[in-house]
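Incident review: delayed structure delivery

Summary: a single-chain prediction request sat in the queue longer than the usual turnaround. Root cause was a stuck worker, restarted by the on-call engineer. No data loss occurred. The affected request and its eventual output are reproduced below so the record is complete for anyone auditing the incident later.

Affected input:
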Amino acid sequence: MNYATQFYSWIQGIVSHYLQIYVFAKNPELAARYGNLIVLMVTLTVIYALLEVFESFKKVLRYIILMGWFILVLAIVFNYLNRH
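Output delivered after worker restart:
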């Protein structure tokens, strides 16, 4: 977890630095505040997007599993009927 915290702080520093240079040159303390909020919002957005991707993958996987079981049962039934 220490690496994640270091990475988060590093990204926050980069964002704050560029905000200070390009947006808040006259008021650098706002750059640090908004840099922290921007990194937090980006992190939450990425987590939300990943959860959405995995949620949609769960739906697709559910249909694949259902089709697999259906095909397996059909194969067993057809094999049984073919013997008699």
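Verification: The first helix runs from residue 2 to 22.
Action items: add queue-age alerting; document worker restart procedure.
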